[in-house]
Write a structure and sequence with these properties.
There is one protein chain. By secondary structure, the protein is mainly α. It folds into 2 domains: 194 residues, no CATH class; 38 residues. Helix content is 73%, strand content 1%. A two-stranded antiparallel ribbon has the order 1-2. Strand 1 and strand 2 form a beta hairpin. Helix 2 packs antiparallel against helix 4. The radius of gyration is 27 Å and the shape is extended.
Length: 270
């Protein structure tokens, strides 16, 4: 819906949102991506030190001159810093996704429905980062080996991403658990740190879902239909509402709890 709204605005005000505006959006996106990379560069050593804090303090291991004992004393500070970096990075990614949608609207408008033009414009403007040759080109066609290779790359890439995600979540959980069981400061401080970090995690997940997840929509067609029927024939509208209520009551209690009444398949006669 966000992209469709952008398309509508660009179509109505094509003279305002011109090439200069597109160039400005690209510069802002480049700046935001550069800042996101810097945040990632800061997050990586923090994660390493948090992993180091999980090692027993008597282990003779040092990373960048920092020992497990020193990292364990900094757990609360590191985990709060990691949570804040995650919030800032997710906010920047959301901003970059918005600008990608705007640039994608320019690509769609200029390609005029041509898939090849859209693909190459997307490559040039940075909205299409994955390019593969066509399955068929004139008398040539890719073999099954190429398709198997692409499938293998996709499976390995997804596996690496999943392992990285779940590994990071597991380390995150272990550090929070260790802070609660063996706090470096007072117990109240550990609880406050854990609460703050969990609040940042929830905010990050919700913003990430808002940016790239599905958006629940409500279909108002039946409501508008019932509004028209109520104006023209109130008695028929009352019969329809009664039929909707009876059909809803026939469902199991749990389904009634999480769902709404629906328009009956057969409307009562007027």
């Amino acid at each position: 819906m966000r992209k469709e709204r952008f398309k509508d605005v660009l179509r109505k005000h094509a003279d305002i949102f011109n090439d200069d505006y597109l160039e400005a959006i690209q510069k802002r996106r480049a700046t935001a991506r550069s800042l996101s990379f810097k945040l990632f560069s800061a997050q990586l050593p923090i994660l390493i030190f948090l992993v180091l804090s999980l090692i027993p303090v008597d282990a003779s291991v040092t990373i960048f001159g920092v020992s497990p004992k020193a990292s364990k004393n900094l757990r609360e500070v590191l985990i709060v810093a990691s949570a804040l970096v995650g919030v800032f990075a997710t906010t920047l990614n959301h901003y970059v996704d918005i600008m990608n949608d705007i640039i994608g609207c320019f690509v769609d408008r200029r390609s005029k429905g041509d898939k090849e033009v859209s693909e190459f414009l997307g490559l040039g403007l940075g909205t299409n980062l994955w390019f593969l040759p066509g399955v068929k080109y004139e008398n040539a066609s890719v073999s099954w080996g190429f398709l198997a290779l692409i499938s293998m790359i996709a499976v390995l890439g997804i596996s690496v991403l999943l392992c990285t995600f779940f590994g990071t979540v597991y380390v995150h959980f272990l550090v929070l658990k260790d802070i609660y069981i063996n706090p470096s400061f007072s117990h109240a401080t550990s609880v406050a740190v854990i609460s703050f970090v969990l609040a940042c995690d929830v905010f990050t997940l919700l913003l990430a879902f808002l940016s790239s997840g599905g958006m629940p929509l409500q279909d108002l067609t039946n409501m508008l239909t019932m509004s028209k029927i109520s104006e023209k024939d109130p008695d028929r509208a009352a019969k329809i509402y009664r039929a909707m209520a009876l059909e809803h009551l026939r469902r199991p209690w749990f389904i009634r709890l999480i769902s709404r009444m629906k328009m009956p398949k057969r409307l009562p006669p007027g």
